[in-house]
Amino acid sequence: MDAKSLRDLTIEELQEKHRQYKEELFNLRFQNAIGQLKNTSRIKDVKKTIARVLTVVHEKEQGLGIGGRR
Fold first, then answer.
1. Its family (predicted)?
2. Which residues contact 21 (CB under 8 A, 6 or more apart)?
């Protein structure tokens, strides 16, 4: 999910996305640990998406617009 589409969501929706991605990351790590995960690059993608979600949440909480400037 790209940052542009994340910025259209509300803080509550972003927090729900964060929870969903954290759960997915947990499941991917579990699958990797027991040797069932075929696409290990998905772990990296989910971690980056979590960072994007948290960045947009922080921007919205601080009242910052796109680009991070007031």
1. Belongs to the universal ribosomal protein uL29 family.
2. 46, 49, 50, 53
Which residue in the block uniquely carries the two structure tokens 């589409």?
A: 5
**pLDDT tens series, the chain, 70 aa:** 888 999 999 999 999 999 999 999 999 999 999 999 999 999 999 999 999 999 999 999 998 766 555 5
- Domain hosting residue 22, numbered range: 3-62
CATH number at residue 48: 1.10.287.310
- Read off the tokens for 24: 């997915």
